[in-house]
Design brief:
- The chain is mainly α.
- The chain has a single domain, classed as Tetratricopeptide repeat domain (Serine Threonine Protein Phosphatase 5, Tetratricopeptide repeat), CATH 1.25.40.10.
- Helices cover about 75% and strands about 0% of the residues.
- The protein contains 7 helices and no strands.
- It is globular, with a radius of gyration of 15 Å.
């Protein structure tokens, strides 16, 4: 029992370290692919502005457009929106995991961190798995360090 508590504490500390690292550097500013062009970057920037203003209904279609173009950061935000039930989306942890995975697959450290939390809490159809959680938190930390 004591060993399990220590592992949970380590998980939380690891997650906090990743979060603070990403905050210090700005959440993994992933650029869209060159083939997408600047309009995709502008779409993402507009979506983030709406999101910051809590205007989720205006942000969600813009994030969907950017994610369809392969942007991992947009996929991460969609994961958040499904996780929290924002932007006209019903709260759906399974879809949140799906978007976090797409973000992670695109190299987005925040998406990796999101997957880590979902594994840590056993949400979105994922079994509670501290080993997987730590693995994703480490990948997120490595990704944030490379983005710096």
């Amino acid at each position: 029992m004591r060993m399990r508590s220590r592992l949970r504490l380590r998980l939380v500390l690891c997650a906090l370290a990743v979060s603070s690292l990403m905050s210090a550097q700005g959440t993994n500013r992933q650029n869209s692919s060159p083939a997408v062009g600047s309009s995709a970057a502008e779409t993402l920037a507009s979506a983030k502005k709406y999101y910051a203003l809590h205007q989720y209904s205006q942000a969600s279609p813009l994030f969907l457009k950017a994610a369809a173009a392969g942007n991992g950061e947009a996929a991460f935000y969609l994961g958040l929106m499904y996780q929290n039930g924002q932007g006209g989306f019903a709260k759906d942890y399974v879809l949140a995991v799906s978007w976090f995975r797409k973000a992670a697959d695109a190299g987005n450290a925040a998406g990796m961190r999101g997957l880590g939390f979902m594994y840590m809490n056993g949400q979105g159809g994922l079994a509670k798995d501290d080993v997987q959680a730590v693995s994703w938190f480490r990948k997120a930390a490595d990704g944030a360090m490379r983005a710096a």
